[in-house]
Write a structure and sequence with these properties.
Four copies of one chain form a homotetramer. By secondary structure, the first copy, chain A, is an all-alpha fold. Helix content of chain A is about 80%, strand content about 0%. Chain B binds a DNA duplex (21 and 21 nucleotides) through helix 1, helix 2 and helix 3.
Chain lengths: ~200, ~200, ~200, ~200
DNA sequence: GATGAATGAGCCTTCATTCAT
DNA sequence: AATGAATGAAGGCTCATTCAT
């Protein structure tokens, strides 16, 4: 049994090591094909020791998802602070699409979702993550509309826009795997994407 | 080695049996957790015999993807024959979103994409499939615009729209797994989705 | 998942092979120290195949206990058919004690009991086994007393005797491990044992 | 290597802590299933430090057996001092049987014996223990017979009785695990047990 | 075509033990 | 004296795949 006493600083650092290693291995081979032995080797520690830091393999992937979530939230927060959201977003679209097109990252994300649909514990993490992100997306939309105009719309409208915003980005992730050479299609996509964002972010 | 002389009618039927069984098992347990033994049992044949019909487990999933592709193409074709595409689509949105929200199907699709990113053979199938679907999507868009108006637009515009159409649907698939209780959010999503489709299908 | 369809004759024979091998390994190393790999090798088959025949390692030991039980019951049955039970028993005591003094067998028996106290499934088998043996012991005692005299005694008396008969034999098993050179003490024990059996089997 | 210079008082107390903890864990989970980590936690010290006090896990169990032995010897000694042994014993039978029926204790005892049959070091401890207990049992029997009458009997007779006395008690231990609900059968057993003790302790 | 017994590599996980501090 | 991080060997078990029949 792994105890759940306060993890020491050292343990925290070791956990990060494992998460980095695991993310790399998962990206390289997929969740199921990446062995604990490989992860351990990549992390520069023994397989046994990983189990002092994590409950089991599933626990590692859950921790990765949670860490990624925090990163996303921070990115959204930073983004919201800059103001002039729509302009910003329309301008940054190429970059955003590019980011979504890193196939290995995309694959890991897709796999996590697939896994979540059959693993209750992971599902909980994913849903919690998504709830946070969605909340931020709604705030972003409200901010972009102007709080005044936003308060005039029914909450369902905001919610629907946020969900579609999520679908749009997740859809790009999926397409980057589905569509051969997606990265080269960014110029074709960007203008269309721009118009779609306007539908979601403007009044 | 399995020879690939003319597959008999009987063999073709047996293959379908296996594909049906495998699809069911994959949906139930995921690709990696479904065992050949379980598939064989579900298909009502011996594990050994499956290897007379398919090269290996990967080969089965590739075949499933190909079969699904044909189905999708037929659905698009039927859809295009009905005319008044935009109206039709706007009307059928609730159903379409619902369809995308069958979590088990969604999970399998996501898993296939994840798998494809690391399995060249499967990637080839997925890419070929996507190419066909994208081609149909472009035709659909052109038809919806009216061939006249369509021919005025640069091909890149049509292509971008088709890709975003793909992203939209794949994004809904992903969201149905990511977002707890997505099925209940359809009323919130539908109107937003409607506007986005107009962006893609109308001039 | 192992299916529980009718086991074929072949499978039955293979099971016996495994049971023989496992009993040997367990006797040699103990239940926990005997590895499935070693059992497989001893049985002349692959580790994987054992799992087509048995659910898991625990299942093997349960099957061994059950097989041993049947053997004991047959021995008791044969014994009861000979008649003149007390005389027979008193005469065969040296042999019986000797049998109980095979240290390796004794150790396995003790370990099974210890294991049973923490493994519900094994406990069930052991208890069922013991119930059958106890029943035969009671019949043996009644037969030895003569059915007439037996029917005069309260059932509790018969039951108590049967339990003590069991304790006596199991106690010898334990002593054969506890007491260094127990096998050589048979001449010292036999006469005492004889008197104790008379207490249990005579009126 | 651990040196064995004069163990300090402190070390002795720490050893007792470990033995208490280990006995508890062994009773709860069995010798093999109890981990050093669990023992350390129960003892309120680090796993590493246990190895300053004991050679290894086997060493702990040996020490437990030795400590238990001393306890048993003290109990016998106290018992012998009371006089009127047979009466005392016959009176205390229910209690004695009850004591033997604590399944967890019984299981540990059985496991120790099983282990001893394959572990020379533990065997030595068990045999030494048994030798001491047997010696006391013989003294008890002689005392019960009256030293006069006892000296008339051949030493083998006394020895045989002592061994059977041991078998009887160990047999009850075994039965408490083998026989479901043994604790409730005490009333049925006690009178029979009484007669058997008379055979062993009376002339 | 078809079976299903059989293989064996490989996986996740546990745990006694060590050792730097 | 004491910690607890770290090791790494080994174990039970699964499963894609093969092959004799």
């Amino acid at each position: 049994m792994t105890l759940s006493t306060q993890p020491s600083d050292r343990a925290l650092a070791r956990r990060q090591q494992v998460l980095d290693a695991a993310a790399e291995c998962f990206r390289r081979r997929g969740f199921h094909a990446a062995s604990m032995a490989e992860i351990a080797k990549t992390a520069g520690m023994s397989p046994g020791h990983i189990y002092n830091l994590f409950e089991n393999k599933d626990d590692i992937i859950a921790a990765i998802v949670e860490r990624d979530c925090e990163e996303v939230l921070q990115r959204i927060a930073a983004f919201r602070q800059e103001g002039a959201l729509l302009q910003q977003m329309l301008g940054g679209i190429e970059q955003a699409i590019d980011d979504r097109s890193q196939v290995a990252d995309a694959a890991l994300q897709l796999e996590v979702m697939a896994e979540a649909s059959r693993n209750a514990k992971l599902a909980a993490v994913v849903h919690r993550t998504e709830a946070l992100v969605n909340e931020q997306a709604q705030a972003l939309i409200r901010q972009s509309l102007g709080e005044q105009a936003a308060s005039q719309l029914p909450p369902e409208e905001i919610e629907g826009r946020a969900l579609m915003l999520g679908a749009l980005f997740n859809g790009l992730t999926a397409m980057s795997v589905r569509h051969a050479g997606m990265a080269q299609r960014v110029p074709a996509i960007a203008p269309v994407m721009r118009r779609m964002l306007q539908v979601l972010l403007a009044p």
